[in-house]
Amino acid sequence: MTEPQRVGAGVPAGALVPGCIECRRMHRRFTDPRTPNPGAVLYGWATHHLDDHATVPEPRPGCPECDRFQSPPRGVRDTLWRRWARTHYMKCALAPFWQPSP
């Protein structure tokens, strides 16, 4: 079995904010094959972008998970759903083709 692809087609534009030590650290940890839980690092990297850089991600065309986040299900607070959606969109922008290991 091959190692999951951690970053699609290189690092997307804007993934590493110039001069941001945290972006470089997160990218290094995410792409390090010795990292035991790259999904957790990716989540941290995404929330870093949302909270510290005020990045506004958009849904990725063709991503079924991005499509799923377009509207909240009944019973979920809109503000909570938007945060989950923005976090997924950011993760999808940082590593569009990454999948966790089976």
Ends: how far apart?
A: 10 Å
Radius of gyration (CA) equals 14 Å
Could you name the ranges where pLDDT drops below 50 across 5 or more consecutive residues?
1-10
Which structural class matches the secondary elements? Answer: mainly alpha
- Overall body shape: globular
Keyword list:
single chain, 102 residues, mainly alpha, globular
Summarize this, please?
With 102 residues, the chain is mostly helical.
What is the secondary structure topology, with strand pairs?
Blueprint: H1 21-31, H2 38-52, H3 64-68, H4 78-94
What would you say this structure looks like, in words?
This protein is mainly alpha-helical and 102 residues long. The protein is built from 4 helices and no strands. It has helices at residues 21-31, 38-52, 64-68, 78-94. The protein is globular. Mean pLDDT is 84; it is low at 1-10.
